[in-house]
Amino acid sequence: MKKLLTVFATIFITANMFAQAPQQTKHQIGENFGGGIVFYVFKPGDVYYVEGELHGLIAATNDMYKARWDDAFHACANYRGGYFSDWYLPSYYELSILYQQKSWFGNFKNDFYWTSSESDNGNPWCWNFNGGGLSNNNNRLVSLNVRPVRSF
C-alpha cells in the first residue's frame, strides 16, 4: 500500500509541475522567433492589439532576391522560413516599422524594397532603405528587394 501511495504521489506532483510550468508570455524586438526576427510587438492602441493576447510582426532574416512587384507577392507567399507558410509582402506601414528596427538585422541593402501597398492611382509603393521614405513607383516591372514578413 505504501508503494502504491508513493507512485500516486509522484505522478500527482509531476503532473502539477508540468501543468504549472511557466510559459513565455512576452516577446521582444530582436528575438529570433517564428522563423525570423521579431520587429514589432502590438501594444494598446494598435489596430491588431488584443488585450490579454500577445501578437506582433516577424521579418525573415534575409532578403529573398530582387523581383518585380507582382512576383514579389508570390515569392513571399511561397517562402517557408522556419517551416511557416503564412509569409507575405509587407504593407508600407509594416515596412516603415521594419526600417526603424533594421539595426536588429544588419543585412538590409541601402536600396528600395517593395511593399504590398498601392497609391490611389494604382501604382505600387516602395520603401527606401537608404535614408528612409516612401516612394511611389509607377513601374511594376522594375526589380526591387523583397523581405517577407509574418504575424504571430
What would you say this structure looks like, in words?
The protein has helices at residues 2-19, 69-78, 92-100, and strands at residues 32-33, 36-41, 56-59, 112-118, 124-128, 134-136, 149-151. It has 152 residues and is of the alpha+beta class. The chain has one domain: Mannose-Binding Protein A, Chain A (Roll). The strands form two sheets. The chain has a four-stranded antiparallel sheet with strand order 1-2-3-7. Strand 1 (32-33) and strand 2 (36-41) form a beta hairpin. The longest helix has 18 residues, at 2-19. The N and C termini lie far apart (50 Å).
The number of strands is 7
**Radius of gyration, rounded?**
21 Å
CATH uppermost class: Alpha Beta
The count of domains is 1
Fraction of residues in H or I helices: 10-25%
Q: What's the CATH topology name?
A: Mannose-Binding Protein A, Chain A
Largest sheet: 4 strands, antiparallel
The CATH architecture comes to Roll
The end-to-end distance, rounded to whole angstroms, is: 50 Å
